[in-house]
Amino acid sequence: MSLTGFIGLGNMGGHMARNLLKNGKKLIVYDVNKTVVEQFKAEGCQVATHPADIAAASKEIVTVLPSSPHVKAVYQGDNGIFKTIQPGTLCMDSSTIDQIVTLEVAQAAALLKAEYIDAPISGGVTGAQQATLTFMVGAGNDATFARAEAVLSLMGKNIVNLGAVGNGTAAKICNNMLLGIQMVAVAETMNLGISMGLDAKALAGIINTSSGRCWSSDTYNPVPGVIPNIPCAKGYAGGFGTSLMAKDLSLAQNASTNTQAPTPMGSLAHQIYRILARDPTYQAKDFGVVYQFLKKQNV
Amino acid sequence: MSLTGFIGLGNMGGHMARNLLKNGKKLIVYDVNKTVVEQFKAEGCQVATHPADIAAASKEIVTVLPSSPHVKAVYQGDNGIFKTIQPGTLCMDSSTIDQIVTLEVAQAAALLKAEYIDAPISGGVTGAQQATLTFMVGAGNDATFARAEAVLSLMGKNIVNLGAVGNGTAAKICNNMLLGIQMVAVAETMNLGISMGLDAKALAGIINTSSGRCWSSDTYNPVPGVIPNIPCAKGYAGGFGTSLMAKDLSLAQNASTNTQAPTPMGSLAHQIYRILARDPTYQAKDFGVVYQFLKKQNV
Amino acid sequence: MSLTGFIGLGNMGGHMARNLLKNGKKLIVYDVNKTVVEQFKAEGCQVATHPADIAAASKEIVTVLPSSPHVKAVYQGDNGIFKTIQPGTLCMDSSTIDQIVTLEVAQAAALLKAEYIDAPISGGVTGAQQATLTFMVGAGNDATFARAEAVLSLMGKNIVNLGAVGNGTAAKICNNMLLGIQMVAVAETMNLGISMGLDAKALAGIINTSSGRCWSSDTYNPVPGVIPNIPCAKGYAGGFGTSLMAKDLSLAQNASTNTQAPTPMGSLAHQIYRILARDPTYQAKDFGVVYQFLKKQNV
Amino acid sequence: MSLTGFIGLGNMGGHMARNLLKNGKKLIVYDVNKTVVEQFKAEGCQVATHPADIAAASKEIVTVLPSSPHVKAVYQGDNGIFKTIQPGTLCMDSSTIDQIVTLEVAQAAALLKAEYIDAPISGGVTGAQQATLTFMVGAGNDATFARAEAVLSLMGKNIVNLGAVGNGTAAKICNNMLLGIQMVAVAETMNLGISMGLDAKALAGIINTSSGRCWSSDTYNPVPGVIPNIPCAKGYAGGFGTSLMAKDLSLAQNASTNTQAPTPMGSLAHQIYRILARDPTYQAKDFGVVYQFLKKQNV
C-alpha cells in the first residue's frame, strides 16, 4: 500500500493524522517537534528527516502549518517538498495562510507536474479529534477534488468544493474576518446593554431571536454566565486565542490590500485584536476575552 | 366600552392601530398627517385635535413616534398628553428613542400618578401588518406588564418582559447597533471574498454554516442573487432605510456616551451609515446598500 | 464700583478670578467648594449662597464650569442665575459644553432681556495663571463683543471675535477634536517608527520638518526623551487628563450627531480616550499617555 | 569621467536626473517609457536596454520607482541590476516601498559586494524640479552616507542621515501615515465646524494658533478659499493623489502587521483613502479631496 505524507503534527494536525491512521492509511510524517514525531513512530508511522524525504516517498501529502513562511519553507525551502516531488503528486495544504502564497506555491507545483491545493479547516480541536472538520477546498477541477475528498473525508465530515485553487483560503479568511468583527461587536453590545441596566441573559435572549442574531452571541457569547461550558465560563481558557485571531485578521488585511477591497470593520477588529494579542493580560486567552477588555473600563 | 388612545399612524403605527380595531378596540387617534387621520375617522375611530384630547378621553394610550423630540412634544408639549392625563393612565410608547428621554418622561408621568412604559418593536412593516411584532417591554413591575400585555398582544406575538422601565429601549438599541455593525461587516466580507475570486452564493454558504453565521448573512444577505425577495433583490427598495439605521446608531452612541461604555465598532458603523444617509445615491435605500457603497469602489 | 459675578473657582476659574481682582475688579463669587470660597472671602470678595444671589447683585457675570449639566443648573436651576437676572446683564460662559446647551441658555437669557455669550478658553492652567489665555468668543454682535472683551482681556491676551453665539464653543470643540485625533496619531506613528528601528528623536526631527508636522509632535511629543519639561517627561503627571479629552471628544460626537457631519477619526479617538479614561492605569494621566497604552503592547 | 546610472524617469525621477545633468554628471538611463528615454538621449545621455546594462556600465546608481514589485524587478529580475552589478557599486533607491523589501534587496546586494541604501524623498514635484528635496537616508554607516550625500545633494538640499539601512524608508512611511491621518482629521474637523456655523477661515485661524495646528491645516488646508494656490483652490488638480496616499498608507499597514505595532488611526485612514482611490469622482484628485467626500454628504 502506498504511503501518505503528513507534515505538521500540532494541535490540529496530530489529531488529523491519527484519523488517517484509524482509517487504515500508512503514514510517513514530519514535524519540527521531535517528541511528537517519536510518538507517531511508536504508533507505526515512518519518520522523515526533512519534508523532501516525504515527497520522495509519497504522492499524497497533507500539510497543516502555522503560517505563510512555514508553508514557503516546507514546500520551497532547501530540503523542501519541491526538491524531490514526483509528477502526479497531490499536496493538500490545510494551513490558513495568505492567498497570494497559496497561489504562488500552486504555480510552482504545476511547473513540477504536481498539484498543490488549499483545504483550510474549521471546527477546532474537537472537530480534528472527532473527524468532524469542515474542509474548504480550492482544488481547481472536479477530478482533483474527488482525489482530495477521498483523503480529507477520513478527517472531516464536510468537504466543500469551492472551485479554483485559492478559494478555500479565501473562504476561510473571509469567515474568520467576519467572526472577529462579530465577537468584538457582541462584546461591546453586551457591555453597553448591561451598562444600560439589562440582565445579560435577557439581552442575549432578545438578540438571539432578533436581527442581531449570530454565532458569537447564540453559541459563543463572551459574557460569563450566559452560556455554559464554553471558554468564557472557564476564565477564557482554551478556545481560539487572541493571537490566532489577530493573525487571521492580518491575513484578511493583506488580502484587502492586494484586492483593494475596503474593509473598515475588519481593519478595526484587526487593530483591537492586535492590542489584545500583545497584552500579557489577554494574549493567552480565548478571543471572547475582548469582552473583559471593554468591560474592565467600567467603574 | 372605554377608548384606547393611539398617536402616530405612520408606516408601523397605522397597521398596529388597525390590528387593535380588528380585535374590537374602540380608538381615539391623533397624527400630524390629516389625510391618514381622515381614513381612520372613516373606519369609525374618534379623532383628536391634540394629544391632550386623547389623554382627556382615554386611560390606555399607545404612541409610535419617529424620534426623541417627537416623544417629548407629544407627552410634555403645550397640548401634550401630560396636560390632561388622568391618574391611573397607562401610556405604552413603542417609539425607538434615547433611553434618557424614556426615563425622563416616565418620571414625569409618575409625578402625575400615571405610568409611561417603553415597548419598542421589531418585526418591520410586515410584522406590524400581520400582528407578529416582538415588543421589548420595560414595564417596571409585573402588574403593569400584564396590563400592557393585554393590549400589545393584539398587535404582536412576542411580548417580552424585560423588567425596569427603560429596558425595552435598551434592548432595542443594543440589537440594532449589533445589526448595523453586522450588515457593514457582511457587506465588506462578501465584497472581499468576491474580489478574491469566490462565488457569492458559495461564500454565503460557507459563512452560514460556520462561525460567521448571522442574520445579515443568512436571512438578509446584501449581495443581489444570494437570497430572493428581499430588498437587495429589488434595487434595495423598501426594507430598513440607511437613515433609520443612522438614527438608531446615533441612539447607541448617545447611550455609550452616557454610560461611558466603549463601542468602537458601533461608532464606526454609525459614521458609515451617516455617510450613506446623506448621500443622494444611498439615502432612500435599504441599509443593505452599504454593499454597493463598498463594491462600487472596485474597478 | 459695580460688582462682577464669578461662578466656578476651580483649577482654571480660580486663577482667572484672581486676575480680575489684580486688575481692580470687585467680585462676588460662588463655588460648591466652600474652602475655596473662604479663601476668596479672605481676599476681599463678597460671597454668594446661590448663583441667584450673584445675578441679583451683578450685571456682569463670568462662569467657568465643568460640563453641560452644571451650566444648566447654574443658569436654569432652582436657585440659578435666571431666577434673579437683571435686564441688560452680560453672562460670559467660559465652560466647554455642548453647543446645543449654549444655544438654549442664550435663548432663555434673551427672553429675560439679558445676554449669555460663550467664551471658552485655551491655554491651560499656566495661561489662566499668567492671564495669557485665548478666549474664543461667540458674542453675536460687535457691541456685546466689545463689552465682553473689556472683562476677558483682564484674564487673557487673545480675545477672538467669532461672531454668532455658539461659535466660540464650536471652535473650541473642533480644535480639541483635532487635537485628540492628532495625539493618538502621533503616538501610534512614533511607536510604529521605533518598532521599525528608528530613534525617537530622529523620527520626531523628520516629522517636525515635514508634512506630518503638528503641535502634538513638535511641542507636546508623547514619547519621553524627545521634549523636556512636558508631562510625558514626568510620568504623564499634570497636563490635560485623558478624562477631559474623552469629555471634549464626546462633545464633538454630540455635535456631529446633531449636525449629521461625519467624523470617522473623531469618533475613533473618542472611543480610544474613553477606554483610557476608564482604565485605572491611565485615567489620571496626561492625554499623551496614549503612547504608553499602545507601546505597552510591544514585546 | 565615470557614468552615473539612473532608473525611473517619471514625475519625480525625470527632474532629479536633469538636476544631476545640470551639475555635470554623465548619465546612463533606463525607463519603460521609451519616449522619455529618447528625450534624455537627445540631451546627451547614454541609454540602456535593461537595468542590467546600467549596472555593467556604472558603479553609482539612482533608482526612483513606483512600488515594491518594481524595485524587486529592477534589482532582482531577469535583466536586473544584480545580474551584472560590480563590487563596490552604490545603489541609492529613492522609491517609497515596503521596508521588508528594502532590507531584502540590501541583503542581496551585500552578498554581491555592493551596497543598496534607501533614500526616499519628500518635497514633491516642485522640490524635484528645484533640487530642494529632502532625502531620508538609511546608509548603514557614515562613509556610505558621505558617498551618497555627494550625489543626493545635487538633487536636494536636506540630506538626512538616519543610520541603518531601512531607516529612510521607515521615516518616510511614518511621516506619510501621520499626514494621511491628519488630512482626514482636518477635513472632518473643518466640515464639522462649518456645519456648526463657523466661517472656514475663522476656524482655520483658531486651529492654526492652537493645539490643533498642523501642516494639513496651516499649509494645505483642504477647504477651498482658506489658502490660495494649492490644489484645493484648483479643483484638487495636481498635488498628491488619493491613490498615492492609499499606497503609502498600505505600506504603513504592512509595516504595522510586520512589527505588530497597533495603528488604529492609520488603518482607518487607509480604509478611507482606499475608498476614495477607487471612486471615479475622487481617484485622480489631490488627497485633500477627502473634504469634498465628507462635505458632499451634507444637505
Automatic annotation (TrEMBL), chains A, B, C, D:
Domain 3-hydroxyisobutyrate dehydrogenase-like NAD-binding stretches: 166-287
- The answer to whether UniProt assigns keyword Glycoprotein to this entry is no
Top EC class for this record: oxidoreductase
Identify the GO cellular component terms for this protein: mitochondrion
Listed under catalytic activity are:
3-hydroxy-2-methylpropanoate + NAD(+) = 2-methyl-3-oxopropanoate + NADH + H(+)
- Name the EC number(s): 1.1.1.31
- Give the family this protein belongs to, as stated in its UniProt record: Belongs to the HIBADH-related family. 3-hydroxyisobutyrate dehydrogenase subfamily.
What's the name of the protein? 3-hydroxyisobutyrate dehydrogenase
- Give the species this sequence originates from: Caenorhabditis nigoni
Originating gene:
Cni-B0250.5
